[in-house]
Amino acid sequence: MSETPKFYYPNRMGRVVLQSTEQVIGPDRFNTLITSTDNPDLFRLPPANLNKQFPFEAISALQAAIEAAFGVPAGRNINLQAGRQCLDKGLKQFDPVLGIADLPLRLMPVGMKFRVGLDVFARLFNTYSDQVVNIRSTPTHMLWVIERCPVCWERKTDAPCCQLAQGLLEESIFWGTGGRRYHIEEVECIAMGDPACVFQIDKQPLD
Ligand SMILES: [Zn+2]
Fold it and tell me: How far is the CA of 145 from the centre of ligand 1 (A)?
């Protein structure tokens, strides 16, 4: 039997996910949740550096723990909200590293901002974490394809369960396009047996 390879987020990303989730449910409920899990050490707040030491297991176990504590529908909604918080809570701090600030985003038409923003975010994950993201385009949609996904790592579910990734994607696009909303839906999920977690994003904004 071969050992499962270990994949990691940089500490800073793990920290952002923990803090965002704590903000959504409040520190008291967050502490109760963590201490009731089999391995509370998995969720110890890591330092805000870029070392790849925060295991994928911790991200997916947190999603599962929230679903178990609050029920699946409410839990998935909490994970979606936590994903939305991640951008403000710290992923924007990757901005200088990525050079987003150097891009003349404000001068671009919204459709181009949308594409460039997605490319930049894919690069963030592909460069600083073991998450693997590809972007594909169809006539009507952009597809955000997570080929190695920490959010549902080693989970088995009947419905897509990467709401954390969806929330982050929604806020990243909102930010990158200067305030436009796009309909996003997770249409395939590795936890359901699909080869990748696929998020279908309408090319036309909602407004
Ligand atoms: Zn996933």
Answer: 9
- Using the mean position of ligand 1's atoms as its centre, give its distance from the Cα of residue 1 in Å: 24
Please say whether the beta carbons of 149 and 197 come within 8 A: yes
**Rounded distance from Cα 8 to ligand 1 centre (Å):** 14
CB proximity list for 94: less than 8 A, separation 6 or greater = 12, 124, 128
- Amino acid at the residue 86: C
Task: Tell me the pTM.
Answer: 0.92
207 residues of the chain, pLDDT tens digit each = 456 669 999 999 999 999 999 999 999 999 999 999 999 999 999 999 999 999 999 999 999 999 999 999 999 999 999 999 998 877 666 665 555 555 566 677 778 778 877 888 898 899 999 999 999 999 999 999 999 999 999 999 999 999 999 999 999 888 878 888 999 999 999 999 999 999 999 998 898
